[in-house]
Specification:
This protein is about 30% helix and about 25% strand. It has 13 helices and 22 strands. It has helices at about 15-25, 40-45, 50-65, 80-105, 165-170, 185-195, 215-230, 320-335, 365-370, 385-390, 415-430, 435-440, 450-460, and strands at about 1-10, 30-35, 110-115, 115-120, 125-130, 130-140, 145-150, 160, 175-180, 200-205, 230, 235-245, 245-255, 260-265, 265-270, 270-275, 305-310, 350, 355-360, 375-380, 395-400, 405-415. Strands 1, 2, 3, 4, 5, 6 and 17 form a seven-stranded mixed beta sheet that branches. α1 runs parallel beside α8, α3 (about 50-65) packs across α4 and α3 (about 50-65) crosses α6 (about 185-195). The structure holds flavin-adenine dinucleotide. Flavin-adenine dinucleotide binds near residues 36, 43 and 313.
Length: about 475
């Protein structure tokens, strides 16, 4: 058994872990990062954000190319080479993980590959291919992330039942696939498979897809998706039976089919659970709740003074950019800076087509919290750029504090909505009001003009909306 002594060990090399490790190293802290995977990047780079976006890019271009036949340019039926598509996705991932590895070496952050478990409040034992390594640390940051939720009545050991990682492997293109769960990950993967030719059914227990988003936003989304997916809302799956010729799924609820339905594949996308119970946190004295989450204070410190936690493992929203910012704060606090994590808003984006994006308060949340608010929207059917780009199915909605006029939330649905959301996030963080946004000159013609225009609607300077 070898032993390493370090000022900081980071457990988990996802966006939270590598961001924390790099920031710590930049601040002069000797840092070791432990991850069981061969490559840095965690779920996000290896089996999450990045490979899904590579495939969604291809799906989007395919749809656009098909659509062009309406405007006099036809390309014929697409021919799909699944091996090439897979290697494109793997190349994208490879470029980024290689980049991370370079950045890690540059900073002299040591990657210990293997599975880590605490053996005390200053020791972690890592079991790797080359045996065991004891890492003796002054401080630790737990960034061990999350994994997909499984359901007891589903035969997860059948290889026709897949989770997001299985879906990203793209072993084949099933003729008929059920997406179990109408959240962001399920809809993104369903979008990819639909573009490649699968017939997609989506079942969601609640009364709308992407339940966190506002209803008016999802209404616009559904205009496109009602033809892409067969959506069964307010319905649940009660049984999945694996037979030789397929998976037979029994449904219950408002839109449940009477008989079990046969699918070639079932993608289970019902959320993610934190990995808190998998590395003997108790041996370090770190408290983990029943669900596997770790509680932290605003400086990301656990109940043990020298141990911090960041990313998916400390709670919702389980998003890469949240993990990155938390990672920076934890490293800065360890270096002695008096920083804390307290953002006004964290953006959420579904990279479907159209994209669904929101930041700050949704209208639903404003109502629940009893906030006095007003909304103003700009439909993309009135946007020159949207009309010229065949992207009129979109809406930009701003939410303002009724008393001060300050921007407290915003949502967009439409092509590239996620790219434009940053402006609303900045407005919220800077305390901008409707007038500030309305008077900011946006380039014409752009889709993000709609943010200025929605604010002008609020200000009353635009009244004749279509
Ligand atoms: P993770 O990325 O989960 O990394 C944790 C790492 O720790 C893993 O590599 C794991 O192997 C390692 N680990 C855990 N325990 C141990 C141990 N005991 N020993 C050694 N190693 C260990 N988020 C977005 O913001 N945008 C998106 O577009 C987006 N798309 C997604 C698409 C999919 C299909 C999925 C599944 C997720 C997506 N997410 C997205 C969510 C995002 O991936 C996570 O929020 C993010 O990766 C969390 O980062 P993290 O640092 O907390 O941990």
């Amino acid at each position: 058994m070898s032993e390493i002594k370090t000022q900081l060990v980071v457990l988990g090399a996802g966006p939270g872990g590598y961001s924390a490790a790099f920031r710590a190293a930049d601040l002069g802290i000797e840092t070791v990062i432990v991850d069981a995977r061969d490559t840095l990047g965690g779920v996000c780079l290896n089996v999450g954000c990045i490979p899904s976006k590579a495939l969604l890019h291809v799906a989007k271009v395919m749809k656009e190319a098909k659509h062009l036949s309406n405007h006099g340019v036809s390309f014929g039926e697409p021919e799909i080479d699944l091996d090439k598509l897979r290697s494109y996705k793997d190349d994208v991932v490879g470029q980024l993980t290689k980049g991370l590895s370079g950045m890690s070496k540059m900073r002299k952050v040591k990657h210990v590959k293997g599975y880590g478990k605490f053996t005390g409040s200053d020791t972690l034992e890592v079991e790797g291919d080359d045996g065991k390594t004891t890492v003796k640390f002054e401080n630790a940051i737990i960034a061990a992330g999350s994994e997909p939720v499984t359901l007891p009545f589903i035969p997860h050991d059948d290889d026709r039942v897949i989770d997001s990682t299985g879906a990203l492997e793209m072993k084949d293109i099933p003729e008929k696939m059920l997406v179990l769960g109408g959240g962001i990950i399920g809809l993104e993967m369903g979008t990819v498979y639909e573009a490649l030719g699968s017939k997609i059914d989506v079942v969601e227990f609640l009364d709308q897809l992407i339940p966190a988003a506002d209803k008016d936003i999802m209404k616009v989304f559904m205009k496109d998706y009602k033809d892409k997916f067969n959506v069964m809302l307010e319905t649940k799956v009660t049984d999945v039976e694996a037979k030789d010729d397929g998976l037979y799924v029994t449904f219950e609820g408002k839109n449940a089919p009477d008989e079990p339905v046969r699918y070639d594949k079932v993608l289970v996308a019902v959320g993610r659970k934190p990995n808190g119970k998998m590395f003997d946190a108790d041996k370090a004295g770190v408290e983990v709740d029943d669900k596997g989450f770790i509680n932290v204070d605003k400086q990301l410190r656990t109940n043990v003074n020298n141990i911090y936690a960041i990313g998916d493992i400390i709670g919702q929203p389980m998003l890469a950019h949240k993990a990155v910012h938390e990672g920076h704060v934890a490293a800065e606090v360890i270096s002695g800076q008096k920083h804390y994590f307290d953002p006004r808003c964290i953006p959420s984006v579904a990279y479907t087509e159209p994209e669904v994006a929101w930041v700050g308060l949704t209208e639903k949340e404003a109502k629940e919290q009893g906030v006095s608010y007003e909304t103003a929207s700009f439909p993309w059917s009135a946007s020159g750029r949207a009309i010229a780009s065949d992207a009129t199915n979109g809406l930009t909605k701003m939410i303002f504090d009724k008393d001060s006029g300050r921007v407290i939330g915003g949502a967009m649905v439409g092509t590239n909505a996620g790219e434009m959301l940053g402006e609303i996030g900045l407005a919220i963080e800077m305390g901008a009001d409707a007038e500030d946004v309305a008077l900011t000159i946006h380039a014409h013609p752009t889709l993000n003009e709609s943010i200025g225009l929605a604010s002008e609607v609020y200000e009353g300077s635009i009244t004749d909306m279509p």
